[in-house]
Design goal:
This protein is mainly alpha-helical. The chain has one domain (2-117). The protein has four helices and no strands. It is elongated and about 55 Å long. It starts with a helix and ends with a helix.
Amino acid sequence: MKWAFLLIDLIIPLICVIFGLGAKKIAAGKINLWVGYRSARSIASREAWEFANRAAGRILFWEGISGLILSLLFGVLAMLYCPLEVQGTVSTFLTLAQAFSLTVAIPVVETKLKKQFD
């Protein structure tokens, strides 16, 4: 059970790293409404699509790396030195912080798109 909290805390950062690395392939693909960074600005042109997906990919990648580091640091420390209830609290806090950090990409990419293409 001790390892379960740590594994849960690593899911979001790992997904961010994977999607961040895959953003180059998505950017090279067709503009679509299913996969990639999709907003009114990003689907307006091929250049905007590539720009937005590369920018979002870089942000997600580095959010994932920082999330992995923080999750490993705090997760392992909690697992080694804290009772199970505190581990659950640490895990919940880490998961909420990771979920919140995902929302950072949207205004950053939209601001870059507006600056670059408007």
